[in-house]
């Protein structure tokens, strides 16, 4: 292992005065600056000098443009400016969020159920707002949720975001602990429901104080996490104050197969509102623009103009609190889940009116039934899990019984621009092989990413030693028992 790298030099920016370092990243550093006019503190994200290839520049520009489209949302970090410094490094000037973000809080604080629900609903509003303008975040996790000066969660880092309908694409930079199974598959695929999974995984971490499939005191390597994410039921939160209804919401949102999840972040938010109402808590309103979903979205029917803006839920299912009910057995068939009703208009300063939104049954439940019938017709027996996918099935015993070797020949070469190129060899190549890798530091476990080729480029580190670990991952999800590690002085 090696100590954390030295930060890059803060650039000289006209109209801003450097204050201090805020954080280090894989491709950029973040600094606190003081803006001269208007006077305010701002966070400035600056690309590392060794990261200025075309792909990284494109990601940086994409992040600036996407966040600018969404900056009006109260739970998305505001972008003030994007430009290029005198030394050639691109930078973003962003809202400075002074309070501890979720990455710090979930490991060190006991977050109340009330606060976790409020944060979850506000984040779901932000994710839904992004989806409505055609943007998938693809990397929702505690580290990408800051906290504004007024205590609101603020989603940031749209660097690997994609356009809705574009597909998952490359998964480099993806954070494994909060990623859904379909993004960990040999051929990644994803849509809005992938963000739904990561949103719920983030709320889970806030409540549990750990990542969803992390085993306290156990082996939590990348290969173990991937296997659990793909095959293990969601572990209980281990808190007596969390109602079963809240765990049921997270469990559905993090279902292994996308068709069993909530169809949208909006649906997650409404389910969380229902839990608030059942607990007798104030219902957190949704922050969504006055715009309908796309008419061709089969998972959410278009609404009339008067019903496109969500109102605070005044009366939600006034019946026996759902948290007092006994949850169904794990092997019980999934029941159709209806949308909540907004029963009364709510006066707002804008003068708009609310309209009752009719409860609907997700079309995906019908699709699941069709799949079940088709399976019964072909096999002669009912399929107990009609929505399961072969992507998440257990491998044959003959395959599972063989150990996955560790990569060999890991070596690195420092380039003229101070980046380090690492390469390694796959001792037993097989179809669908991938690799998890991460930079080793003295401050904690590496944040792992997935690549398909046996090479990675580590950005400039300021001349210090660079160490990484690499594991081989088979198409069936099995991985090397021991990662291979290597360093470059």
TrEMBL record:
EC number: 2.7.11.1
Domain Protein kinase, residue spans: 16-273
Composition-biased stretches (Basic and acidic residues): 290-300
Leading EC class: transferase
Biased segments, Polar residues type: 381-396
Region listing for Disordered, in residue ranges: 282-312, 381-419
Signal peptide feature range: none
Residues where ATP binds: 45
Gene3D superfamilies according to UniProt: Phosphorylase Kinase, domain 1 (3.30.200.20), Transferase(Phosphotransferase) domain 1 (1.10.510.10)
Protein name (Swiss-Prot/TrEMBL): non-specific serine/threonine protein kinase
């Amino acid at each position: 292992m090696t100590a954390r790298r030295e930060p890059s030099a803060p650039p000289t920016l006209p109209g801003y005065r450097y204050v201090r370092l805020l954080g280090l990243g894989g491709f950029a550093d973040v600094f606190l600056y003081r803006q001269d006019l208007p006077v305010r503190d701002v966070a400035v994200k600056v690309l590392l000098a060794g990261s200025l290839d075309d792909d990284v520049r494109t990601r940086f520009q994409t992040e600036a443009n996407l966040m600018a489209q969404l900056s009006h949302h109260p739970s998305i970090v505001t972008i003030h400016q994007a430009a290029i410094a005198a030394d050639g490094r691109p930078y973003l000037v962003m809202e400075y969020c002074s309070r501890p973000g979720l990455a710090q809080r979930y490991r060190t604080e006991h977050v109340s159920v009330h606060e976790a629900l409020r944060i979850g609903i506000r984040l779901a509003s932000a994710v839904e707002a992004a989806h409505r303008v055609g943007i998938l975040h693809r990397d929702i996790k505690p580290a990408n949720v800051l906290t504004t000066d007024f205590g609101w969660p603020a989603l940031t880092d749209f660097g690997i975001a994609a356009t809705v309908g574009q597909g998952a694409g490359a998964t480099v930079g993806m954070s494994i602990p909060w990623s859904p199974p379909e993004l960990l598959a040999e051929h990644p695929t994803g849509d809005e429901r992938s963000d739904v999974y990561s949103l719920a995984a983030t709320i889970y971490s806030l409540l549990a104080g750990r990542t969803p499939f992390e085993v306290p005191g156990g082996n939590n390597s990348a290969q173990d996490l991937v296997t659990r994410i793909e095959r293990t039921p969601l572990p209980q939160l281990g808190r007596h104050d969390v109602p079963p209804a809240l765990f049921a919401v997270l469990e559905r949102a993090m279902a292994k197969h996308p068709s069993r999840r909530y169809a949208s972040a909006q649906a997650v938010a409404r389910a969380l509102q229902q839990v608030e109402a059942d607990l007798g808590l104030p219902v957190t309103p949704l922050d969504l623009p006055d715009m309908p979903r796309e008419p061709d979205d089969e998972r959410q029917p278009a609404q009339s103009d008067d019903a496109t803006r969500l109102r605070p839920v005044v009366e939600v299912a006034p019946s026996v609190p759902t948290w007092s009910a006994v949850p169904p057995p794990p092997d019980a068939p999934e029941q159709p889940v209806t949308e909540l009703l907004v029963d009364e208009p709510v006066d707002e300063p804008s003068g708009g009116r609310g309209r009752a939104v009719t409860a609907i049954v997700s079309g995906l439940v019908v699709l699941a039934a069709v799949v079940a019938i088709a399976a019964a017709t072909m096999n002669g027996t009912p399929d107990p899990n009609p929505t399961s996918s072969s992507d998440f099935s257990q491998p044959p015993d003959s395959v599972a019984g063989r150990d996955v070797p560790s990569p060999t020949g890991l070596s690195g070469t420092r380039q003229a621009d101070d980046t380090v190129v690492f390469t390694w060899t796959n001792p037993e190549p097989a179809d669908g092989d991938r690799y998890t890798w991460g930079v080793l530091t003295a401050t904690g476990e590496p944040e792992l990413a997935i690549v398909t080729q046996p090479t990675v480029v580590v950005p400039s580190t300021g001349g210090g030693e660079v160490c990484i670990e690499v594991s081989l991952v088979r198409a069936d999800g099995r991985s090397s028992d021991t990662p291979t590690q290597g360093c470059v002085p």
